[in-house]
Amino acid sequence: MATLSASFSANSNNTTRFSVQINPTRSSSSPVRLICSAAHNQVSTNESSCCLKGLKTFTCGVLAVWAVTAASPVIAANQRLPPLSTDPDRCERAFTGNTIGQANGVYDKPIDLRFCDYTNEKTKMKGKSLAAALMSGAKFDGADMSEVVMSKAFAAGASFKGTDFTNAVLDRVNFEKADLQGAIFKNTVLSGSTFDKANLKDAVFEDTIIGYIDLQKLCNNTTISPDGRAELGCR
Predict the structure, then answer these.
(1) Which domains does the chain have, with CATH numbers?
(2) In angstroms, rounded to a whole number, what is the distance separating the alpha carbons of residues 230 and 204?
(3) Which residues contact residue 26 at a Cβ distance below 8 angstroms, ignoring those fewer than 6 apart?
(4) I need a labelling partner for 156 at 20 to 30 A (CA). Which of 38, 105, 113, 226 fits?
(5) Residue 61, Cβ neighbours under 10 Å: how many?
(6) Alpha-carbon distance 223 to 178, whole Å?
(7) What is the pLDDT of residues 64-117, one digit of tens each?
(8) Which residues contact 10 (CB under 8 A, 6 or more apart)?
(9) Model pLDDT for residues 41-54, shown as the tens digit of each residue
(10) Which residues contact 227 (CB under 8 A, 6 or more apart)?
(11) CA 230, CA 193: separation in Å to the nearest integer?
């Protein structure tokens, strides 16, 4: 539990202290519980009591916003990926994919492809739906992943050197620290995907479909070649 507080003094004899307590909960829908309170050592008139109520509402609101903002990064940092699947055929799931809810990352079967090796796979993954797939540490070097649908996939640290993503939909994919050197994003949708510290050297972005805000973030990646920056329209 953490507490944020602020004190206000109208005069030397009248001081009010406001506080917001942050209590973690077990509920995923409401990860923190806020308790706002006020304490004062003297209120002499009805007018000051009225003003105190208004000040309490305003101050507790400000402190609550501050509390939630401060707590959110901690909650996100504590999130963990599920344990590695023990399914002996988990790597083969990439060849069948999952079939429902692609747009929202909802799936009928979980796909755990972590640390699997699909190097130079040219036929079995084309056009597959890999919604919410876990791909960190996997190798897709030289693979043909054209027309795949990857919605909310987690591909941080994966290797996609020379991977062909032509006509693919890469929606809200996390490519943090992934190796995408020479990857082909021809006519590829890159909506909401992140490439923090990813290697995009010699990646091809011909006719890539990407929003303005996502483009600005992508253009901050210094590994993109001059040709790639020109194709994207980076300034």
Answers:
(1) 110-228 (2.160.20.80)
(2) 10
(3) none
(4) 226
(5) 12
(6) 12
(7) 434 433 333 332 334 578 999 999 999 999 999 886 544 555 555 679 999 999
(8) 16, 48
(9) 554 444 444 444 55
(10) none
(11) 20
